[in-house]
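Hi C.,

You asked whether I'd gotten around to modeling the 287-residue construct. I have! Everything is below, sequence then structure, no commentary in between.
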Amino acid sequence: MRYIDIHTHVISPDRDAYPLDPLGGVQSGWSQERTLTPRQLLDAMDEAGADKAVVVQASTAYGFDNSYVADSVEKHGDGRLLGVGSVDILAGDATDRLDHWVNQRGLVGIRLFSTGSTMPSQATWLNDPRTFDAWGWMQDNDLPVCVQMRLSGIPRLLDILARFPRLRIVLDHAAQPDLEGGPPYPNSAALFELSRFENVHLKLTNDNFERAAAREGGAQGLVAALVEHFTARRIAWGTNFPATEGRMSDLVRAAETALAGLDERDRQMIFADTALSLYPRLREQES
């Protein structure tokens, strides 16, 4: 089985070179406790048997300054690492910022952080008219857009999908589905209805598995429901390492257990092939 992890983070121990500026003004606890350099990430990948990885901006540490992600990818990895950064799409110069990080610094995707551990409420700016130029730029440049959001943000996302029908959307942590009651997860019906959009993908993470473990149906029940609606070709996996605590090798094993109910083809799609489709530059330097 090949493993490509599309949701990792790096946190520099050098706060002078890479100053903190977390979104919402509060740094996440995990990023205070666990720094991770790109070299350490690559070592963890080697131990876990992960081939390549996408490094996603740690929004609750660095906000919109993607320097550490961009530098990590540029200086390390020899093609094994790609970077996804964050941009304030409400800013008047948002398209210039997108151009800088994508075309000048080499990032392959953008992350929009509209909720999270330090920002628990769902932001309302996803479909603010001030964002439309940025959405249009991302659509025109065929850029995968990772959206960290809750189910309550889906109506605003639907507006964006109607306005920009060629956007490639990747929902971080599968939009944090409501698992109450277990399969078929009636409180997550709005998420499953998004499966009618072929350009909407799910990022299924170890955070999802941990949340589902104590619920009826467990992690395998959640995986089965998501695959039933979206199919494996629109689901990609990520550890969320090191935000999700533990060794990467242990997180890979936990993911294997969560996906054990699928056939080998679907497991390989989620563990690697969907990632290759979303981020074609992962194919570079393939032997």
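If it helps when you're writing up: The first helix runs from residue 29 to 33.

Thanks,
B.
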